[in-house]
Amino acid sequence: MKKKDNINLAEKISEISKKIEEVKITCFYMLSTDLYKIENNKLTEIITKKFENHPATIMELRATKDNQLFIKKHDSWRIPKELQHLKSKVDEKTNYYLNLYFEKLEKEKQNCLYSSKSNPFVKFVFTPLIEIDGEDELHFFFVTLTIFQNGSIIIELFEDLRSSFYTIDFLHPYTIMKAQIFPDFKKKNRIYSLNSDYQVDDILKYIKKELSSINGGLKLTESTFILHFITNMDQMNKMEFFKKDKLYTWMINAPYSPKNVSSKNRSKNYLTNYFDLDSINYINKGANYIVWNNGNSNNFESNFLKQASFFLSSATPFFQLVCLDETIMDGLEKFQLSNDKQLIKFNEWIHNYKRSSLFIYRINHRAVFDLFTHLQENSYFKHDEYIEKIKQEELNLLKERNQFNELQKNRIMEIMLFIVSLVSILQVVDIFTNNIIILSISALITISLSIGVIMYRNRK
Fold this sequence. Notes:
Largest sheet: 13 strands, mixed
Number of strands: 15
Strand content: 15-25%
């Protein structure tokens, strides 16, 4: 493909992609090799105490036993004087997104699961980063932190990508900014900074740093999943540009060369097949998921809620289990399990973590379970027999090392007791005689026996 053709295609894609109605959610699932030391309720309490009154927190949500949501809101941050003319618009859109992404979405997820009793959580929503393009259009980026009862810690980045556009590789959507309103989480006041050098990544790093400081320092393992919820896929695929290669195939196979996309001899890894449920479709490649609904509705809000609530109800427990496996495979040496007691406690933690996902098997909504099963069976994160064998060997080696260390401790204790008993014999001999020769011979015999026993034990 010629350079001029590439330029024309890039311009065409950027223009067409503006019509995509999409919500992108990047999920960072985090577990620590030290979490088995902390009781789950205690972990929830620590994180809640750290963030419930944090200046950055503007909303808190909790699952309740009666399948309702406890919601607590804080005042919004103030915007700079230079942008006071946008204040009402910022307030209006902030409240709209808080209601859609968090209140309505969480309620819809609970309706899919029919119960929150087995899946309690606490979610903190932080004040958004806001970008302003050349036409004073506002683009919001929300970061949330959720702690589940099983110990999962999840950071999510919500991006409303309407009015954004993609480059030629269909990998990175972006806007052309005129200004950026940044919330500096490190400051005590609740006032946005205008055109700060900080980015969303700085917010994420700050939250992860705060989490890592828990309990004297946690080494967190992170698994990332990227979810694209396209709410007007049917309309987009009717366009001439996507009639041959559907929009979801462009997105799921990104990044790529336009030459390869148009080639007749595509790679066997070029994905086109998707999973079809009654209410949604999805296609995945690694940690990247494209989700859309079957209906022809033009209602962005209802489409998004239908897709996201259903998919996340199944995907959340699946992603948690993937994160657990990757945390274990990240290296058992990190756990520093020095005895059988710690190993048993660690294995109990793994078992309880896995058992917490059993609620997915007991739900009334069969389609949610079917999707969970399909995610497991068709995941790129499957562990084959060899990997499972290596994992089991590591656990066995860890157990053998602990048993060896325990045996060494017992041997040292036996030697010390033997020496003490010999010294006691000398004290008894000393009671019956003051003869230096006899005492010296007794001491010599005692020392010889001690050395002999130590050499014999070491040889053994």
